[in-house]
Amino acid sequence: MVRCFLIHTVCPVSALGAGESRLLYSRLFGPDEGIFSDRERGLSPEERRLVQKERVAVVARQVRSAVSLSREASARVLGETVPGEEALALQEADSGVVRLRAGDPFSEEMSALWLGVQSLGFTLVCEPHENLLLAESTLRNLARHCLEHLHMLGQGSEVLLRSNRVDALLSRLLPHGQLLFLNHRFAQALEKEVAAYMAK
């Protein structure tokens, strides 16, 4: 099962410090057992929300570090992408997996799959037994739809204003945090449904 999906920055942004990452969107799935320790289950709803927010921020920082290391190691220079070239940007995206040990930040061990597209990071946090190839395919599909339909690489990105569209994408491509095995016909039908919804 996927525990959470994040969209965040992975490059320095003028308003942030050198090591910081700005969280643009987050969605948590599933029961709280893997997220909260026994001690934290007695917290108030507001305190739990703050604990979740901090844990998601920790994941975003760890992914940002992994993306930075990957880009330094490849010595590849990032070029500017103009609207309409989202597919090319996605093709050139950095990707990887970060193992999140138990207690750092979740009470159970997790895997964070990430995709670094220009200054944006897309991350899926999965339980360790999850099929990582299927998770990567789902992550790339989610990132492609977000980039194409929300114009996230252009000026004035709409992700903060259109979180309901990201929610709709997740409900179709990752229902309740469950990865879907898709045959060709079902994948085409899903593509048409998503494209029709996003065109509204």
Low-confidence stretches: none
Number of domains: 1
**Principal-axes shape call:** globular
CATH architecture: 2-Layer Sandwich
Give the topology string: H per helix, E per strand.
EEHHEEEHHH
Q: Structural class of the secondary elements?
A: alpha+beta
**N-to-C terminal Cα separation, in Å?**
30 Å
Q: Let me know the number of strands.
A: 5
CATH-defined fold name: Beta-Lactamase
Give the C-alpha Rg.
17 Å
- The count of helical stretches stands at 5
**Biggest sheet record:** 5 strands, antiparallel
Helical content (DSSP H or I, runs of 4+): 40-55%
CATH C-level = Alpha Beta
Biggest sheet, spatial arrangement of strands? 2-1-5-4-3
What number is the mean pLDDT? Answer: 82
**What portion of the residues fall into strands of 2 or more residues?**
15-25%
Protein name: AP-5 complex subunit sigma-1
Organism: Perca flavescens
GO cellular component, one term: cytosol
Pfam family, one: AP-5_subunit_s1
What would your notes on this structure say?
By secondary structure, the chain is of the alpha+beta class. Helix 3 runs antiparallel to helix 4 (163-173) and helix 4 (163-173) runs antiparallel to helix 5 (184-198). 28% of the residues are buried. Strand 4 and strand 5 (120-126) form a beta hairpin. It is built from five helices and five strands; from the N terminus they run E-E-H-H-E-E-E-H-H-H. It has a single domain, classed as Beta-Lactamase (2-Layer Sandwich), CATH 3.30.450.
